[in-house]
Amino acid sequence: MDKKTIKLYNGETLAYLHEPNPGKKTLLLLHGNMSSSRHYEPLITRLKEHFELMVPDLRGFGDSSYHRPIESLEDFADDCASFLARLKNDRVYLVGWSTGGGIALKFAAKYPQLTEALILIESASYRGYPIYEKDENYTSTKQLYTSKEAMAHDPVQVLPVLKAIENQDLEFMKKIWIQAIYNVHVPEGEALRRYLKETLKQRNLIDVDWALMNFNMSETPNGVAPGDGSIKDINVPVLSIWGQNDRVINKTMFEETVAVLNDVTPYIFEKGSHAPITDNPDQLSKLIKTFIGNN
Asked: Which residues, in sequence order, are CB contacts of 72 under 8 Å at separation 6+?
């Protein structure tokens, strides 16, 4: 499947995958950090006969442009609204994986007129994603980074990934993904290579990491940023999915988001990792179809 491109009103150009399906409900699938639209291929294959699928590379990822650096996850949500407006689409079901889940939450709060329902897959918490300072043994402390510049030099969570991208180091990136994300099931052969090559296209890693730390839709500070209280503006059905073996999003992050949503159906994969899209795409697609059919 080849990517198409479209220019947004802000001058950015988004690459995207599109599976048209006239008369069917529309799903807008938002990928996470260190990924792109291609990472959704197992779901696209299983859902394209049932829905219209729109899957963009977010600004600074994949084959999309990055003329203006993002300052918040809300910038991505605004891009998505512009993306839908340019394609003359109407209300959509948002599917957000990891960081894409945080973007989906912000989108639903800001653009309720465009949102039918949310499907969160291993989503970032509505209170953001913390990155802690490291001691001399590279062990996390309880102190959050308080500046973007300091966070950019984190020796565990930021610098190794940044260097792998800069050096286009496919083998090192493979080790990162197998350790942290594909720790339950590793995609085979060419599929794994294709996903990793997409990861290496990212140009906004530090900006996204800092945006995640400052993301806070709650009503109280998260240690880095004050809350904007916008989580209360989400009034659509939500399916929230999490895997017990997720090494990126912990149980507390999953549960705290579920606890504040008004109409939410939680689902836990007992042996799932951060990547149920490749762990168990058949079961994941079934969950999505059932949820949308009921809403």
From this structure: 211, 214, 215
Q: Which CATH superfamily is domain 4-294 in?
A: Alpha/Beta hydrolase fold, catalytic domain (3.40.50.1820)
Read off the pLDDT band of 89 (50, 70, 90).
confident
* pTM metric for this prediction: 0.98
* DSSP string over 49-93: TTSEEEEEPPTTSTTS--SS---SHHHHHHHHHHHHHHTT---EE
Distance CA 119, CA 27 (A): 10
Angle formed by the axes of helices 205-214 and 159-166, to 10°? 150
The per-residue pLDDT for 96 is: 98
Mean pLDDT estimate for the chain = 97
- Angle at the Cα of 43 from the Cα atoms of 39 and 45, rounded to 5 degrees: 105
Instruction: Check residue 167 and give left, alpha or beta (phi > 0: left; psi -120 to 50: alpha).
Output: alpha
